[in-house]
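To: structure subgroup
Subject: Chain for Friday's discussion

All,

I'm putting the inputs and outputs inline so they're searchable in the archive.
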Amino acid sequence: MPNSSSVSEFLLLLAFADTRELQLLHFALFLGIYLAALLGNGLILSAVACHHRLHTPMYFFLLNLALLDLGCISTTLPKAMANALWDTRAISYHGCATQVFFFLFFIAAEYSILTIMAYDRYVAICKPLHYGSLLGSRACAQMAAAAWGSGFLNAVLHTANTFSLPFCQGNAVDQFFCEIPHILKLSCSDAYLREVGPLVFSVSLAFVCFVFIVLSYVQIFRTVLRMPSEQGRHKAFSTCLPHLAVISLMVSTAMFAYLKPPSISSPSLDLVVTVLYTVVPPAANPLIYSMRNRELRDSIRTLLEYTHCQQIYL
């Protein structure tokens, strides 16, 4: 029986890409989304790094989120764009394992950062007098390190476990990148059950984090509703609700992708669900976290004006 050592490459089968025109359409769409994510997250990184007034816990975590968004979308889309542009489907065995590792690393660390950001907002709004003591520079660095560390451990666990399985169901992955549920379909007989335990553990942990996020926002909304200023309430709601919507979209689609029964799986549904939790958040987060934040918008505007002036001077 062939095992994983006999698989030298995988074939990434993108849905709705049967003709050359559709492949080029996918390339154009992915390129537009990728460039938007690069621009938005790049501006946030530059603004936070260059403006001292943004050197606060909230923007420190936002900087980490932007880094992780760039890493996450850069792990999946460039290879998918190259395949669509050059009419190829192959990815090497080691390339697939590397893609799985970095995707899981960035996505798990990002979810941890989002959980920490919810805690940051909870302390800022519900316990403002304790904000400095609870979220000092040392505590922020430790929480960020824990988020990145948890992503690394999650990636090592699932990548090692998945690619230790024997594959004897072909090498065609019905997705635009190497996604664990589709790779497990290629494993022999019941060998994939070895990955079910770690997968359920990770999903359960993600669900606990999601409950923590929801409870944090419930406390935030309760506090906001007691604010005497209608303008203050509107500002808090307009800031928190989009954050909660993105987190809910990311968690619900990711859990559906990894836990859905095979009977309801289809290439089109899998593509839509995967795009919603892998591509949309990195591209949408810069808009959501900057549209309602005047301080960040002003910093980005100042940065762009300074860059423009420098170009004129040169």
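Points worth raising on Friday:
The first strand starts at residue 9 and ends at 12.
The chain has a mean pLDDT of 84.

D.
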